[in-house]
Amino acid sequence: DFTKDTFQVNVEKVLERDQKLSQLDDRADALQEGASQFEKSAATLKRKYWWKNIKM
C-alpha cells in the first residue's frame, strides 16, 4: 500500500534527522567546551606575559 510505504519512509527520515541533530548537538557542546578552555588558557597566558613585562 502506497500510503503505508510513504509513512514508513517518512518515519525513517525523521529518525535519521533526529540522530543527525543529536550528533550536531554533541559536536556543538564539544566546540563550546573547547572555546571555554581556549578562553581560559588565553587569559592565563596574557596575565603571565603581562607580569613578565612588568618585571622587566
From TrEMBL:
InterPro entries linked to this entry: Synaptobrevin-like (IPR001388), Synaptobrevin/VAMP (IPR016444), V_SNARE_CC (IPR042855)
Subcellular location: Endomembrane system
V-SNARE coiled-coil homology domain residues: 1-52
Organism domain of life: Eukaryota
UniProt topology in membrane: Single-pass type IV membrane protein
Protein keywords: Coiled coil
Keyword Coiled coil part of the UniProt annotation: yes
GO BP of this protein: vesicle-mediated transport
Cellular component terms per the entry's GO annotation: endomembrane system; membrane
Keyword match Coiled coil: yes
Predominant subcellular localization, coarse grouping: membrane
Family under the similarity heading: Belongs to the synaptobrevin family.
UniProt protein name: SYB1 protein
Protein species of origin: Dicrurus megarhynchus
Organism lineage: Eukaryota, Metazoa, Chordata, Craniata, Vertebrata
